[in-house]
Amino acid sequence: MDIISVERLIVEEQFEDRFADQELLDSIHENGLLTPLTVYESKDFYVVLEGHRRFDAIKRLGIEEVQVTLVPAPESAQEAKSFQVIVNRHRKDMMPTHVADAIMTLKEADVKQKEIARRFRLRESEVSTYLTLARGHKKIRDAVNAGRLTLSAAEPLLTKPMEIQEALADAAIGAKTVRKVRALIKTQAFQADVEAQQGDLDADIDPLDYLTLDEITRMDESLEMLIQQGFTSPAIAEQIILHTNKIVSNARQLERMAVSIIGGVSFEEIEENTQELATNLDRLVF
Fold this sequence. Notes:
This protein has 3 domains: about 1-75, Conserved hypothetical protein from pyrococcus furiosus pfu- 392566-001, ParB domain (Alpha-Beta Complex), CATH 3.90.1530.10; about 75-135, Orthogonal Bundle (Arc Repressor Mutant, subunit A); about 180-280, no CATH class. Helix content is about 60%, strand content about 10%. The protein has 15 helices and 5 strands. It has a 5-stranded mixed β-sheet with strand order 1-5-3-4-2. Helix 5 packs across helix 6, helix 8 (about 150-160) packs parallel to helix 10 and helix 13 packs across helix 15. The longest helix has 29 residues, at about 235-260. The N and C termini lie far apart (about 65 Å).
C-alpha cells in the first residue's frame, strides 16, 4: 500500500460523473477508507482506475492523503474497462450487461476467449453466454438486468435472430425457465410453418422434427403464450393440439409395445398392430 496526496489523484473524463451517495460519505467519515483506491501512475499524477465514488467522497470530505494500491498502467482503454468490471463484478449494482459489454470490448480487441475467461474467473462457456447477451435485444438485456429473466433462461433466445428475440421477449419473460423458453422457441417455429401452410396439418409437417415428445405433451402451455402475444389464433392452436395429441397417443402405444417386447410378447402379435403405429415407429428412439 502507498500513501498519496489527494491533490495528485485524477480521474478520466468519462468517470467524472461518478458521485458518492450519502451512505458512502457517512461510512468513510466514520470509519475511514476501508478499501484503498486502485491507481496507476501517469506522468506527475495518479489516475484512479477503480474506486471513483470513493474518490469523490474523499474529496468532498476534505481528506488530504489516502491509501492506494498501485498497479501498472493499462495498455489500452479496453483493458482499463475490463479491469474496472472485474474488480466490481460482485457489487450488487453491477448489471449483467456491464459484464457482457466489457467482455465484448475485449473480444473486439482480439483478446482470446480463454484469456477473457481467466481474467473474469469464468468458464469459457459462460463467456460465450455473456457474449450473446452483449449482442442481445434491448428488451432481453433489460429483463436480465431487472431480474425478470435469468441469463441461463435467456440464452436459448439470445442465439436467435434479432427479430425473433424481439417478438418472443415478453413470452420468454413469462416462461422464466430454460426448459419452457426452449419449448416456446421450438413451438413458435413449428407454429410458423403450420401457419405458412394455412393450417393444413395434412401437409408434410411433423412436430417431432421440431420438438421432443416431452415438449409436445406440454405444447398447450407454449401455444397459450403465443396466443397471448398474437403469434397465432386459438383456432390454429386447437388444430395443432389435436394433431400433436394424435402423435403423442401413437407414441404412448409404441412405448407399451416396447414394454411388451421386453416382456416376451411375440413379434407376430406386434405385427397385428395398426399400420399407423408402424409408420410412426421410425420417428421415435427408445
